[in-house]
Design goal:
It is flat, with a radius of gyration of 62 Å. The chain folds into five domains: 36 residues, no CATH class; 128 residues, PH-domain like; 115 residues, PH-domain like, CATH 2.30.29; 146 residues, Roll (PH-domain like); 104 residues, no CATH class. The chain starts with 30 loop residues before the first strand and ends with a helix. The protein contains 14 helices and 24 strands. With 653 residues, the protein is of the alpha+beta class. 22% of the residues lie in helices and 23% in strands. α9 crosses α10 and α11 packs across α14. The strands form six sheets. It has a six-stranded antiparallel sheet with strand order 6-5-4-3-8-7, with helices on one face.
Length: 653
């Protein structure tokens, strides 16, 4: 049974007959891929799989015709290579045809316009044959404009045909979704493309504009108002023109009153006045800038009876005889505004120019209202009471909560653990103080002085710390500007007065001389030369003693000497006493490790050690180098024990 309805029957239920054996009614695929690109192909079968008999060639027939060539005399021709396939979206990418047009729209609900002309731009996209309609945005049109028809394939008729670029031309009408658009012109690219495809273009037409829009563009009518002055003219003439005055309110007559600065604004547009307060930093007042809001201020009132409650009832406009105007304000004049007297001392440049042009006043010079500064009371620092350091005591006079004085951190880091030491004696009329010796230490990091007295046995004086670390002022310096002792004040023979006690410098450490030579800019030349002269004899004696001193023997030489002494002991049949070590330690009463020559040989004779033998003379050659001027101590106790060690070894063997 055929699936087509019987010809001539109406399309009513029961009048159409279909083949019941057919079960597939899908449409055949029309899209495919070739060489990696999507392309469109024509369907070969219809809905239900029915073969479409149309007057068209298949793709195989088209390929055969494109490769077929005329037959030559000498054999078949070579098959030409097929041309490259370029899809439409690649060949026509970003190529758009643009037409200018308009359409007419009826306006039934308006008495001023009966129709409206709306201009549009018609865009045709060659890559997929789609179209869009855009309406340019007109300012203050009241119509939502912009994208009128979105991009899509637009139908041309009811048969399913779509608009093609061959259907577009200048001077024609096209209907899209029931609206008729008139194409009047196109751009240069569109004109060139259509002519290259063999389409004859119509001549361009003139664009028609909306009559109501053109009417709105006409200039407004100009009305001539009367020349007499009125409020509207005043507002239009002096709008945003304000006179600015700088005033001061003197309220010192009242309790807790003061001088407060304000700014008076006079608005020329409506003769209103506004008073604003000028706030200063930390003035202790709430941040309310407006003292008198903008309003017309009365100048003269109707005289009321004494029983009129003026503190309760407000004054109406009928009770005001005169209002404040611009001529009531002037620089150097006091003005009473709502019971407050303001003294105007200055104004801005616009106000000066306005008064000069309007009233002819030119002497609006600013007035200095600053009071002369009060006499500064000199701060008297109380005298130093002697407790603590002077810098710490001064901090109690500068602030309620004293802060520690600032320290020179760089100086403390550079001179950390650097101390100059001097040997001093006490200058005193008492004879028992003449033998006392002190060590004066000067700390370079903090400029403090400390004095220490070494304890001496059986002297009757307890030694130890004599003066803690403190800064010592020079005699004659004042408490307000003290001058302290420095490293340049200490030299050999100098007198140092420390809180009423006088000390004389008799000696110094060798580090003092080396520090002075490394910092010659900080010391006077006389101080450095005095210190060099003091250390010159000592350095000369040390160099001479170094020249006479022999080098200490090495280990092998000392072992050889011990073996010789042991052999000498065996030949003389000497039996050493075990108390010899204790005797040498007992003889060294000071614990210095040194014995003089007389004591050493006396002990050797006591224990019958043959020191007169030539082999013992070698012990005298190993003499150490000593300092502090003790040339009589030439034998060191530890080296004299070498004889005992040799004898102990001989005894063990």
């Amino acid at each position: 049974m055929s699936s087509q309805p019987v010809q001539g029957l109406p399309l009513l239920p029961g009048s159409s007959f279909r083949d019941s054996t057919k079960t597939t009614f899908h449409r055949s695929q029309t899209l495919g891929y070739r060489n990696g690109f999507a392309f469109k192909r024509l369907p070969t079968v219809g809905i239900g799989g029915t073969r479409l008999y149309v007057n068209q060639l298949s793709q195989a027939e088209l390929d055969e015709l494109s490769n077929k060539r005329p037959t030559l005399t000498y054999g078949q021709p070579k098959q030409a290579p097929p041309s490259d396939f370029i899809p439409a979206h690649v060949a026509f990418d970003k190529k758009v045809l643009k037409f200018d047009g308009y359409f007419q729209e009826d306006v039934p609900m308006s008495t001023e316009e009966h129709f409206r002309i709306r201009q549009v731009g018609i865009y045709y996209y060659l890559e997929d044959d789609s179209m869009s309609v855009m309406e340019p945005i007109v300012e203050n049109s009241g119509i939502p404009q912009g994208k009128f028809i979105k991009r899509q394939r637009l139908p041309k008729n009811d048969h399913g045909d779509h608009y093609h670029w061959k259907d577009l031309n200048r001077g024609i009408n096209i209907t899209i979704y029931g609206r008729t658009f008139r194409i009047v012109d196109c751009d240069a690219f569109t004109e060139t493309f259509l002519q290259s495809q063999g389409i004859e273009l119509n001549p361009p037409e003139r664009m028609i504009f909306d009559p109501y829009t053109e009417l709105r563009k006409m200039p407004l009518r100009k009305y001539i108002t009367p020349s007499d002055f009125d409020q509207l003219k005043q507002f239009l003439t002096f709008d945003k023109k304000v006179l600015r005055f700088y005033a001061m309110w003197d309220d010192t007559e009242n309790m807790f009153g003061e001088n407060r600065c304000f700014i008076i604004h006079y608005y020329l547009a409506d003769d209103t006045v506004e008073v604003r307060e000028v706030h200063e930093r930390n003035d202790g007042r709430d941040p309310f800038p407006v003292l008198i809001r903008r309003q017309r201020l009365p100048k003269k009132f109707v005289e009321n009876k004494g029983t009129f409650p003026s503190c309760v009832l407000e004054i109406s406009d009928q009770e005001v005889l005169e209002w404040f105007t611009a001529k009531d304000f002037a620089v150097g004049k006091s003005t009473t505004l709502l019971g407050r007297s303001f003294f105007i001392y200055d104004c801005d440049e616009f106000t000066r120019q306005f008064y000069q042009d309007k009233f002819g006043i030119t002497n609006l010079q600013p007035i200095d209202i600053k009071k002369p500064p009060s006499e500064e009371i000199k701060q008297i620092i109380p005298p130093y009471n002697g407790y603590g350091f002077l810098e710490d005591s001064l901090q109690n006079c500068f602030s309620l909560i004293p802060q520690p004085p600032r320290k020179n951190i760089i100086k403390m880091l550079e001179n950390d653990h650097k101390v100059l030491r001097y040997a001093v004696i006490l200058e005193s009329p008492h004879l028992e103080d003449g033998k006392r010796r002190f060590v004066l230490s000067y700390c370079l990091a903090t400029d403090m002085i400390s004095i220490y007295e070494p304890p001496v046995r059986n002297s009757g004086i307890i030694g130890g710390k004599y003066l803690g670390k403190t800064r010592v002022p020079k005699p004659g310096s004042s408490t307000e500007n003290p001058v302290y002792y420095g490293p340049s004040d200490f030299t050999i023979g100098a007198l140092v007065e420390v809180f009423g006690h006088r000390f004389i410098i008799v000696d110094a450490d060798e580090y003092v001389l080396s520090y002075m030579e490394s910092n010659l800019d900080s010391f006077p030349a006389a101080v450095v030369e005095s210190m060099r002269n003091h250390f010159a004899p000592r350095q000369a004696a040390k160099e001479a003693l170094k020249k006479k001193t022999l080098h200490e023997p090495d280990t092998q030489e000392m072992d050889s000497l011990i073996e010789q002494i042991q052999e000498h002991m065996r030949r003389h049949n000497y039996l050493p006493d075990s108390t010899m070590h204790a005797a040498f330690l007992e003889q060294d009463k000071n614990g210095s490790g040194l014995l003089n020559k007389v004591e050493f040989f006396a002990l050797c004779d006591h224990f019958k050690v043959p020191v007169d033998d030539p082999i013992f003379e070698k012990v005298n050659t190993y003499q150490p180098v000593f300092s502090w001027g003790r040339p009589d101590k030439i034998f060191q106790l530890s080296e004299s024990f070498s004889v005992l060690i040799a004898m102990k070894r001989y005894k063990k063997q």
